[in-house]
Write a structure and sequence with these properties.
Blueprint (H helix, E strand, L loop, with lengths): L1 E6 L6 H14 L4 E4 L3 H10 L11 H15 L5 H13 L5 E7 L2 H10 L3 E7 L9 H4 L2 H4 L9 E4 L3 H19 L2
Parallel strand pairs: 1-3, 1-4, 2-3, 4-5
Length: 182
């Protein structure tokens, strides 16, 4: 099983990259599945706090508060999201052979996934000088800044265009295929 973990700040293109990666992997007969670490948080927002996912707006303040301040700091459940994700992978691995996680934000998430799984490919996306629309508090939240000085990724990618991302996705999948057969 392969696990691709895509990290980066808001607006860097993580979901787009994940979708492109999924389509490229299908060309090589993989059965990829996109998962999100924050899925439980979105479900809380949608099911209990009247967030309408069709609005196109992410409940960023809620996600940051629930994920960090409440779950990690107040309740000390540092592995809550990772444990839920691992359960999903365990169940869905009966149908899929490759998983793409498109919303990694913390160093601990990266290191823990590498401990739990053998074949983890880490990808860091950045988009220089991009205004992601976050307010100052949201921009300075740990989930936005912790990975800025972390460089232990398999791939560090600057998102300059969709065409650029497509080329990089193709290159990554080809490289992984070559290394698999060596």
């Amino acid at each position: 099983m392969n696990l691709y973990v895509i990290a980066g700040p808001a607006g860097s293109g993580k979901n787009l990259f994940g979708t492109l990666l999924k389509e490229e992997l299908k060309k090589y007969s993989y059965k990829p599945c996109i998962l999100h670490l924050t899925e439980p948080l979105y479900n809380y927002a949608k099911n209990h706090f009247d967030w309408d996912e069709r609005s196109g707006e992410k409940p960023r303040e809620f996600l940051q508060k629930m994920g960090i301040e409440i779950i990690k700091e107040k309740l000390h459940k540092n592995y809550f999201l990772l444990d839920r994700l691992s359960e999903d992978i365990e169940i869905l691995s009966n149908f899929f052979d490759t998983f793409i996680i498109t919303d990694c934000r913390l160093i601990m998430e990266l290191t823990e996934l590498k401990k739990r799984y053998d074949n983890v490919i880490t990808i860091h996306l950045i988009r220089l000088n991009y205004d992601n629309g976050l307010n100052i508090e949201e921009k300075n939240h740990i989930t936005e800044i912790e990975l800025e000085d972390y460089h232990n990724f398999d791939y560090e990618i600057e998102n300059t265009s969709i065409e650029n991302l497509k080329e990089i996705v193709h290159k990554i999948v080809k490289e992984q295929e070559v290394s698999k057969h060596e």
